[in-house]
Amino acid sequence: MGSIYSCANDDVSSQDNGSQDPLTDVVQDDSGITPDSSDHTTSDTFATDALPSSNPWSKDAVTRVNFYRNLAGLSPVAEDPVLSAACQKHAEYMALHRVLTHDENPELPGYSEEGAFAGKFSNIAYGYSTITLAIDKWIEGIYHRLPLFEPGLSTIGVGMAQNYWCLDVISGAEFYLQHEPIAYPADGQVDVPVLFDGTESPNPLPESLSAPTGYFVSLQFDHDTELGENFKMLLYQNGILVESFVRYPNDVSDPNSLLQRVTVSLTALKPLRNGTTYEVVARGIVDGNPYEKIWTFNTKAAPQH
Q1: Considering the domain 182-299, what is its CATH architecture?
Q2: Do 163 and 127 touch, CB atoms closer than 8 A?
Q3: Which of 48, 84, 91, 129 is most exposed, with the fewest beta carbons within 10 Å of its own?
Q4: CATH fold for domain 57-168
């Protein structure tokens, strides 16, 4: 089964006292390899007796996930009511103990087998008033974005209790489905946010770099893709290179590199400019062949005062 990769058992009781930076977290398989979908909770894993068919947040969750997947050129997802019921149990467990965690202790009140499974395979968050806001925050980071952009993801589940959110983004996925590299922000995308505020956990930034930085740019390849050592991804504004931090797969300096999968991620050292066109150039050897992808996106206009 999965294990927690950093920060999963943070006590968030302080957040109930007015903190404005809700935590998020992500799960990683023990082996460091994305598990096969056969290892995950599926619709027939648990009995559906007395389980609700949906909840008040499922429609918004599906709508927002599909909004982003459509931008990325991916197929839509649907809600799996059984996954949602399990997520609801895990959300209630977190709320009961006021802790943001992927784990459940069988010896504590509120434990359930369904909730424990859901916790292992979900993005979790605390403090957001809607699932739409939570999904926006997961997309802002890199580690939580990637499972939402898994090409083989077809169903999701969602639960919430006292603003503890649980969104299962792994159980309903078929891994190793072949797909063109997924660029995000997508080519031609507009109204792109300008910054990453540093609230993702684990923190995708190196110790030498502090938030806020630029909104993450990612190029996500199939799980079995091999990138050549000379592969590069660069960001330009009006033909001028933007100083950025770029992380490549299997970066030995990154303790969370396994979470990044075969993805190149880039964040400008400073927040991007509002109302500006940026160009991304990715070039190198992919699976032994020359590869080049060039695309542009536009950031959102500056807020009106």
Answers
A1: Sandwich (2.60)
A2: yes
A3: 129
A4: Pathogenesis-related Protein p14a (3.40.33)
